[in-house]
Amino acid sequence: MKKVYFKTFGCRTNQFDTQVMISKLKDFELTMNEEEADVIMVNSCTVTNGADVSVRAYINGQSRKNPNAKVILAGCGSHSKGESLFEDKKVFGVIGHSEKEKINEILKFNDKPFYQIGDLEHIDSTIVEEFVGKSRAFIKIQEGCDFRCSYCIIPSVRGNARSHKEDDILLQIEKLASNGFGEFILTGTNVGSYGQDQNSSMAKLLKRMSMIRGVRRIRIGSLEPIQIDDEFKELLSEPWMAKHLHIALQHTSDKMLKIMNRRNEFHTDIKLLEEIAQKGYGIGTDYIVGHPGEDENVWSEAIERVKVLPLTHVHSFSYSKRDNTASATMKPEIKGNIAKERHRELTALIKAKNLNFRNLHNQNLEVLIEQGRNGIYHGYDQYFNKVEVTSHENLTSNWIMIEKADVKNDKNMAIYN
Fold first, then answer.
1. What CATH number is given to the structural domain containing 87?
2. Which runs of consecutive H residues, i.e. helices, occur in 144-295?
3. What confidence category does residue 61 fall into, taking pLDDT thresholds of 50, 70 and 90?
4. Count of H-run helices and E-run strands, the chain
5. Is residue 126 part of a domain?
6. Assigned domain for 54 exists
7. Claim to verify: residue 61 and residue 111 sit in the same structural domain
8. How far apart are CA 331 and CA 158, in angstroms?
9. DSSP 3-state of 16
10. pTM
11. What are the pLDDT digits (tens) for 373-402?
12. Which residues in 16-35 are b (16+ Cβ under 10 Å) and which e?
């Protein structure tokens, strides 16, 4: 059997899509060694110009390291850069999102170069029963996004928001739970929009999930502030909810939020985050620094506002121009060195907040051990903080309770016997 290697770039949604493709390989062998692969599937990210550069560099590298392998481009990059890469003969084939469930037949019957882009209206029907090399299960519950943030290209490469069928999601979780998975992470392009096209909601889905035998902890990938309603808030005290929410603010300046064409405002964001923090939650966010228009006065106001927010985690990145977005033509642009300094200032601030949070929440930590070797194991607690555990036992994929952890600068540590 010919061997297929998967290289996945980008977000958790892409990680799930890779698992979908792996589950469909019936006439091929999966390999974890790209050097022995006959086919290299590149599940690409295109969220920034830099992401495109990384994907292209990987493809060029494979043409030198493994010239006999057929490189197939999948993922978001297939919709933005697939045509040019195919025409330049950088890849043997291109498949769009709607084609990934046909991967076995596509690979089996295409002896000649192919460009099979499909459409942006498809919803997967695949039930993933296993996650290769994972302790936690990622569950994609929706696809696409109806937001039109000025810096983002994703709606044009993923399509409008559409939900997976609730019964299919629950069946998948039942199968994974019966295979030993206890933690489930809900993911998608815009997760909080789930159910709006099916007379359902995130809260309704969570309630049904919680009743499945074996479901121990549920995490949610990322929510928009306006998507957290009273029905959802009622679930915050449930024991199966991970005590961490990732709420995508993107900025704390109302001027910048307007420029970014966002739907949230700071005065409502702070009320929401304080309400959730009072429930004992860690709170993460996405934050873009250096977007056009972020002058010194705007940044000074923004960082002061961050100081009063109960944040414990941040996915911060300097703005990177994305062609074919509204932001790409905006002025004035912010110099790269200034953006990097603001990024450092922001991440240092949240790191200090996280340390303070961990000092207050270092007892009775429920940890799912994901990996380890030589007696040192790593996992995450209910607050999504990393825990390093020393043990003589093999703890991989096990749930353990840490009565009290030692709080270090960048992680918690404990001994488990």
1. 3.40.50.12160
2. 154-158, 166-178, 202-210, 230-233, 254-259, 266-277
3. very high
4. 13, 20
5. no
6. yes
7. yes
8. 27
9. helix
10. 0.88
11. 999 999 999 999 999 999 999 999 999 999
12. bbbbbbbbbbeebeebeebe
Dist. CA 167–CA 410, nearest whole Å: 40
Q: Are 319 and 339 in contact (CB under 8 A)?
A: yes
Residues 371 and 356 in one domain: no
pLDDT tens for each residue of 115-165: 999 998 888 888 777 776 678 888 999 999 999 999 999 898 999 999 999
Give 165's contacts (C-beta < 8 A, 6+ positions apart). 123, 198
CB 308 within 8 A of CB 272: no
- Spatial separation of the C-alpha atoms in residues 76 and 143, rounded to whole Å: 12
Residue 332 preceded by cis peptide, ω within 30: yes
Q: Is residue 129 part of a domain?
A: no
Contact 197/26 with Cβ under 8 angstroms? no
351 with 370, same domain?
no
Query: In terms of domains, do 211 and 231 share one?
Result: yes
How many domains would you assign to the chain? 3
Amino acid identity, position 139: I
Domain membership of residue 405 as a residue range = 363-415
Q: Are residues 109 and 156 in the same domain?
A: no
Contact status, residue 379 vs residue 367, Cβ threshold 8 Å? yes
Token pair belonging to 19? 């698992």
> CATH number of the domain that 232 lies in?
3.80.30.20
Q: Hey, CA dihedral for 309, 314, 320, 324, is it positive or negative? A: negative
Which one-letter amino acid corresponds to residue 42? V
E-assigned strand segments in 277-409? 282-289, 313-318, 363-373, 376-380, 386-390, 399-404, 406-407
- What is the Cα 303 distance to its own chain's centre? 25
153-208 pLDDT, tens digit per residue, is: 989 899 999 999 999 999 999 999 999 999 999 999 999 999 999 889 999 999 99
The CA R_g of the chain, rounded to the nearest whole Å, is: 22
Sign of the CA dihedral with 353 first, then 357, 362, and 368 last: negative
- For residues 393 and 399, give the distance between their C-alpha atoms in angstroms, rounded to a whole number: 13
Distance CA 270, CA 28 (A): 51
Q: CA torsion, points 248, 252, 253, 255, in degrees to nearest 10?
A: 10
Q: Are residues 112 and 172 in the same domain?
A: no
Single out the residue of 166, 164, 163 nearest to residue 125, CA to CA.
164
